[in-house]
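I would like you to sit down with the pair of lines that follows and say whether tokens and residues agree.
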Amino acid sequence: MSQMFDLIKQSAVPAAMMRSAAKGALSVPAEEMIEILVYLTRNPVFGQQAAMTLASWDEAATLKAVSGSAPQEVLDYFWAEINRRPKLMPALIENPRISEENLVHSAANGSREFLEMLKASPRAQASTPVLEAMLENPRIRPNEIVMIRASLGLEPAAQLARPRIERVELAVDVHAQGRRRRVELVDAHRAGLEVIRRVEHRIGIGRAATRSGRHASGHLSGRVAVDDAAQDGERRRAGDPGRGDA
């Protein structure tokens, strides 16, 4: 530990220097600056600034630090999921100071991108616990499960693949049947609407005919009454009392 780092730990430097340290602006070697920044991330005053500085710190310098003899605190910081940088992860995975327990936990819960890194890692591929943990990850793909199980000697790849293919085929068939059923329901709905429209049309025609019949009947009754009145008038003029004198 350098004298500067020791003073920072003892809070024996002015606030202005602490602020400079949190910005990575001290005249110290890059690996030491990274160590100081990791330490400062726990500081209630300068922690946020230190974390921002680390997030944008030179990638080549950081990769050199995590690949070499960086303190365990530095390795643990960049291994934490919230602080992971993709280009640093292969070096961290291969670093024996990252415990197998950490590898196993991340293999079971890590992102799809992390699984791809484990697939490319000689250390991970040689570790039975890590491979078994990868099988538990919900983001693992069926073909990868086949190969991992085969490499572990759990089940031959060919025997494992066929049931999975059959399940996929079954799922596709069920999906297709569901789509056909939905189409049938839509067609039945449309047919029902057409029947309703036809019935309504016929009802409308019937109502119109009824109104027309009533109008014709009223017109005929009026015409008969007019004719009767005319005949009465003619009888009176002819001296025939007819129905009018009865």
About this structure: The mean pLDDT is 83. Residues 35 and 71 are 7 Å apart (CA to CA). The two ends are 143 Å apart (CA to CA).
